[in-house]
Design brief:
Layout (H helix, E strand, L loop, with lengths): L1 H21 L12 E4 L4 E5 L10 E5 L4 E5 L12 E10 L5 E11 L9 E5 L4 E8 L2 E4 L15 E7 L2 E3 L3 E3 L2 E13 L2 E9 L8 E5 L1
Parallel strand pairs: 2-6
Antiparallel strand pairs: 1-3, 3-4, 5-6, 7-8, 7-15, 8-9, 9-10, 10-11, 12-13, 13-14, 14-15
Protein name: DUF5011 domain-containing protein
Organism: Chitinophaga hostae
Pfam families: Bact_surface_Ig-like (PF16403)
């Protein structure tokens, strides 16, 4: 009997080893996502009443089969009669189901094309920030938080004016994740311009940030 038990135990051990070896992975697979390239700028602007908006579209490159595909927007709800920021979204998916998304900001504005608040601004903590005009009422800010000595916080962030006294900074994907601003304020006093906002992102506190054009 003892011999039989030993034989059965040996068989069970052999079976267990075989099953374990069958479940081992012999190859690591690295996920590969399609790459979306927008045609045209990532943010565009048009005046209220200028007619229907037609998006420039995008392309998707799939490195798995080395192919490029033309993409149409998932949505295009831009209302050229109503001032505000709109988001046009794109989605690409490859043969393995990996997805990539991208979006374009569209600003519809009533602000005069001649209005220009671009320039060098100084935050109250002494940090210099550059505001660059990108279109009618549309600007990029290179350090939206006015953070000192922190290169990781320097990247372009779009703000847009719907009229002379109202602007927005909608949610955008940045190197620090999703980021937006709230409580935006502009004070125009002759040639002096002051901008204020609160940055919405886990890497920033809730303080109001104030910038004055130099």
């Amino acid at each position: 009997m003892k011999v039989i038990y030993m034989f059965l135990a040996g068989c069970m051990l052999l079976a267990a080893c075989t099953k374990d070896s069958e479940n081992k992975y012999t190859q690591m697979v690295t996920p590969r996502y399609p790459v979306i390239t927008l045609k045209g700028a990532p943010a565009v602007t048009l005046a209220v009443g200028s007619g229907a908006y037609t998006d420039a579209g995008a392309t998707s490159f799939d490195s798995i089969n080395n192919s490029t595909t033309t993409l149409q927007p998932l949505n295009n709800d831009v209302d050229p009669a109503t001032a505000g920021f709109y988001i046009v979204n794109f989605l690409a998916k490859n043969v393995y189901g990996y997805r990539t998304s991208a979006s374009r900001l569209v600003l519809v504005t009533t602000i005069p094309a001649s209005d220009d608040i671009s320039g060098t601004y100084k935050r109250t903590n002494g940090v210099i920030v550059h505001v660059v005009k990108a279109g009618q009422g549309l600007y990029t800010v290179d350090n939206v938080g006015g953070v000192a000595n922190a290169p990781a916080f320097v990247f372009p962030f779009y703000i847009g004016f719907t009229d002379l006294n109202t602007f927005e900074g909608p949610t955008q994907i940045t190197p620090l994740g999703k980021l937006s601003i709230t409580s935006p304020t502009i004070i125009r006093s002759g040639g002096k311009i002051t901008l204020k906002w609160i940055v919405i992102n886990p890497n920033f506190g809730g303080a109001v940030r104030t910038f004055e054009r130099q």
